[in-house]
Amino acid sequence: MLVIVAPGQGAQTPGFLSPWLEIPGLADRLSAWSDLVGLDLIAYGTTADADEIRDTAVAQPLLVAAGLAVAEVLGASPAVVAGHSVGELTAAALAGVLTPEQALTLVRERGQAMAKAAAVTETGMVAVLGGVEEDVLAAIGKHGLTPANVNGAGQIVAGGTLAQLEAFKAEPPARARLIPLSVAGAFHTVHMAPAVDHLREVAAGITPGDPSVTLLSNADGAVVSSGAEFMERLVNQVANPVRWDACMATMSGRGVTAMIELAPGGTLAGLAKRALRGVTTVALKTPDDLDAARGILDETA
To answer: Please, are residues 149 and 156 in contact by the beta-carbon 8 Å criterion?
Structure first.
């Protein structure tokens, strides 16, 4: 059984789109979507530097557009789809809850609203690798932080104010390694509440479809069969933790045997290698990875 997954913010790297533009028609698709979101997605995906694509209002539309464009090239019909954070919008489009154009309109507003919310207070995020999960969560709570991403495979991302993060770094959990993340704010925490209100207004003008395939939710890893419910979850998720560990547990329970991660792939496939033993993974980083991905499609057809 195949799952296709879409990565979240932070997966983007300078120039990651360049090799994909050699595929006929992909540049035209991205050009049309650039007009829709009001950003030159091709320039941001090819010549922009790390700071430019770190901007939340840029990174989020760029990731969703890249994921959807590469999914079209792949042409897969997965049994299960899921996305991490903003990748949920990519997954929603793959499942038929949203059209690609609706997903891109929504992510444009999401990125702008989250960037605005992040500017209110100086916040950030830090990845916590290793340690005992209970101890890590206790230390995060002690310093008033939020476990914004519970990613499984021994990785939890904490978010909060810079002062809270500094106190946390001075008193880290035992046997854990802390890695500050280059993000513009504390996503999936209470600091994003203003963005939720804006996104709910925008979402009210969209009539979603019900998923045509098994679609997993970041909130708790649940399978969501109602488009309206998934939209509500999408909106609320902006200020609530991502439970990717729960999504992977559902994949395992559903009998997933193979995973393809859409561009810019790597992060989620890496987590799966540690948490979903025996599951074949392919991360679509460049078009050179398409043959391996199509091999998986043949095996799971």
So the answer is: yes
Does a cis peptide bond (omega within 30 degrees of 0) precede residue 264?
yes
- pTM over the 0.85 mark: yes
Q: What HEC string does 235-262 produce?
A: HHHCCCCECHHHHHHHHHHCCCCEEEEC
Q: Which of 188, 191, 198, 217 is catalytic?
A: 188
85 among known catalytic residues: yes
> Where do the domains of the chain lie, and which CATH numbers do they carry?
2-119+189-296 (3.40.366.10), 123-180 (3.30.70.250)
Mean pLDDT of the chain: 96
pLDDT band at 184; cut points 50, 70, 90: confident
286 half-sphere exposure, CB direction, 13 A CA radius = 6
* C-alpha to C-alpha distance for 29 and 122, rounded to whole angstroms: 36
84, 85, 198, 217: which one is catalytic? 85
Q: How buried is residue 170: exposed, middle or buried, by Cβ count under 10 Å (0-12/13-18/19+)?
A: exposed
- Rounded to 10 degrees, the C-alpha dihedral 185/186/187/190 comes to -130
- Given this model, what pLDDT does residue 194 score? 94
